[in-house]
Amino acid sequence: MENCETSAIGRALACLGIGGTEFASANEVVNAIYQQSNPVKETVTEAQLTVAKNKLVDASKEGKLKEAFFALTPAVQEELREYANDLKKSA
After folding, report:
1. CA–CA distances in Å: residue 13 to residues 19, 75, 78
2. Could you report the per-residue pLDDT of 23-64, keeping only the tens digit for each?
């Protein structure tokens, strides 16, 4: 119900030229809903993990482990969270 209300307000604003000039088609709305429910999972290769591990080790030596960890992509962070925690403990 709230989604319909928000869509109606958006369309009304677009008609008035206030909130944009284009309307989403039914297919675009269906596609957006599908993509929210089925996000694309980023794949991470072993080579990427090795490079990231080396960066984390170097950053740990410099006292910048946290910054280096959060500079990684979310998928790499997910794979290396435990590794980074172990580095933090050993520092």
Report:
1. 5, 38, 41
2. 777 788 888 888 888 887 889 999 999 999 999 999 999 999
DSSP-assigned letter for residue 18 = S
Q: Does one domain contain both 8 and 32?
A: yes
What is the helix (H) or strand (E) element at residue 42, kind and residue range?
A: none
Say if residue 33 is in the same domain as residue 50: no
Q: What is the Cα–Cα distance from 73 to 65, expressed in whole angstroms?
A: 15
- Whether 50 and 79 map to the same domain: the answer is yes
Rounded Cα distance between 52 and 27, Å, is: 39
Distance CA 62, CA 2 (A): 50
Q: Is 3 left (phi over 0), alpha (psi -120 to 50) or beta?
A: alpha
**pLDDT (0 to 100) of residue 80:** 96
